[in-house]
Amino acid sequence: MEKLINCFKKKPDAVARLICFPWAGGGSIHYARWGNVLNSSIEVFAVKLPGRESRAKETFFENMQQIVDEVLHLLLPVFKEKPFSLFGHSFGAYTSYAVADALKKLHNIEPVHIFLSGASAPYSETRIQAPKRSDLSDDDFLKWLISIGGTPPELLANPEVLQLFLPALKADLHVVENYKCHKPSSPFLSCPVSCLDGKEDIPHDLQAWKDITTGEFNIRMLDGSHFYLKDPGNERIILDYVTKHLETSGMDYL
User: Fold this and answer.
1) Residue 93: which domain range?
2) For 60, which of 32, 149, 160, 171 could close a Cys bridge (C-beta 3.0–4.6 Å)?
3) Choice among 89, 204, 226, 245 that is catalytic
4) Mind listing the UniProt keywords for this protein, alphabetically (predicted)?
């Protein structure tokens, strides 16, 4: 499990776990530090994917099924141990969905809450018609990267660092752009689903996520563009929101 998970602060007495999936090209540290901020009732597990951080020498995954297989193989005891929720931004939202779908179908396990950020539902027309970015030339890719914001200027200005960063980002985008799934014929979850997004980001079909659950469904819009969640003020709002919902759902589970 240590290969897959970054956990800054172990909390054996936590009521629930928050399992976080990175955005395209992202690592685990942004989420892992949430464990230092959230109270003792919530333990944070941040997922590390191959090709970055301590897994830098591993080959990037080529499709969503590889990610799902590894997560289920290594974390199934975790999913069974105590209440858990999933949080994913952009690429991470699709990973959260794919993992939740497989957990329900294969093991009849579901989270107590799913938080999906910055992404249209994978089966929505908005997402299906979105332009492919992973095949762009490096120059065009960088122009697009700058346009969506969220990437530190010093990284964009450093060619050596950029060459380390771009392959992971393109690999993850390749995975998500080739991930195909059909709209559920009926909701497969009963847990609450919360969608979060930046008001200035390109429009996402958040409403379509409602098709995955019979449970409560909420949409929360915050100031900012695609990486709105990096803003310290927004981060506080998100963590307060997560805490409120997880503490309640964890108690209900018990």
Assistant:
1) 5-253
2) 171
3) 226
4) Fatty acid biosynthesis, Fatty acid metabolism, Hydrolase, Lipid biosynthesis, Lipid metabolism
Among all chains, which residue has been given the structure tokens 């992202």?
26
The one-letter code for the residue type at 121 is A
Q: Does 190 participate in catalysis according to the annotation? A: no
90: annotated active-site residue: yes
Edge-to-edge strands, sheet with 113-117: 5-6, 42-47, 16-21, 84-89, 113-117, 193-198, 217-222
Longest dimension (CA), the chain: 53
Please enumerate in sequence order all residues whose Cβ is within 8 A of that of 203, keeping only pairs 6 or more positions apart, or say none: 126
**What single DSSP character describes residue 9?**
S
Tens of pLDDT, residue by residue, the chain (254 residues): 889 999 999 999 999 999 999 999 999 999 999 999 999 999 999 999 999 999 999 999 999 999 999 999 999 999 999 999 999 999 999 999 999 999 999 999 999 999 999 999 999 999 999 888 888 887 888 888 778 776 777 777 777 777 778 889 889 999 999 999 999 999 999 999 999 999 999 999 999 999 999 999 999 999 999 999 999 999 999 999 999 999 876 545 44
Active-site residue (options: 90, 120, 124, 194): 90
